[in-house]
Specification:
This protein is mostly helical. The chain has two helices and no strands. The longest helix has 135 residues. The radius of gyration is 59 Å and the shape is rod-shaped.
Length: 182
């Protein structure tokens, strides 16, 4: 389990405080011993001084023990907090993985839809090209038919004109013949 740098720093500070307290205890014990030796050397009652020394020493040991217990409790709380943070980090990693998987699935679906869309576009373009070709052929066919109809119409108009001319000639001939008949 990896620990966060911040929690490691706090835990290191707690451990340093415990070591400092232990060093302070040792230093205080040395001072008490020195004071005891000094008092004994000035003709103090050694038994009374020993009792005072033991009482002071017991108080100091009790204070240091309480501080150490508090520091140990704080260290345990930090370890528990670190475990909670680690679980939260693991849950966040899992959530991120699930979200990433979901996004990858959405991306794949979108890509498949895009491929299908482009396939449809390609089919529609092919169909459009085919229809344009058919339209072009039909247009050419109708142009030819129209030209043929125009030619036929022109031929019929000429034939009609010829017939009208013939009819007029016949009518004129008949009118002349009628005028010559008494």
């Amino acid at each position: 389990m990896s620990t966060s740098p911040q929690l490691k720093g706090v835990a290191q500070n707690v451990n340093d405080s415990i070591r400092t307290n232990e060093t302070s205890l040792t230093h205080l014990e040395e001072q008490i011993d020195a004071l005891t030796d000094a008092l004994v050397s000035v003709n103090s009652d050694p038994i009374e001084m020993q009792a005072v020394y033991e009482e002071e020493r017991a108080k100091l040991l009790h204070d240091i023990s309480q501080k150490n217990q508090l520091l140990n409790k704080t260290l345990e709380e930090l370890k528990d907090t670190e475990q909670l943070h680690q679980k939260e980090i693991e849950m966040l990693h899992e959530r991120n993985r699930l979200e990433k998987d979901s996004l990858v699935d959405q991306l794949r679906t979108s890509q498949a839809e895009l491929v299908e869309y482009y396939s449809r576009i390609d089919l529609m373009e092919c169909e459009t090209e085919r229809l344009e070709w058919e339209l072009s052929r039909a247009d050419e066919k109708y142009k030819r038919q129209n030209e043929n109809l125009i030619d036929q119409n022109n031929a019929l108009m000429h034939a009609l004109q010829d017939e009208q001319n013939k009819s007029r000639d016949v009518i004129e001939d008949l009118e002349r013949s009628l005028q010559t008949v008494p």
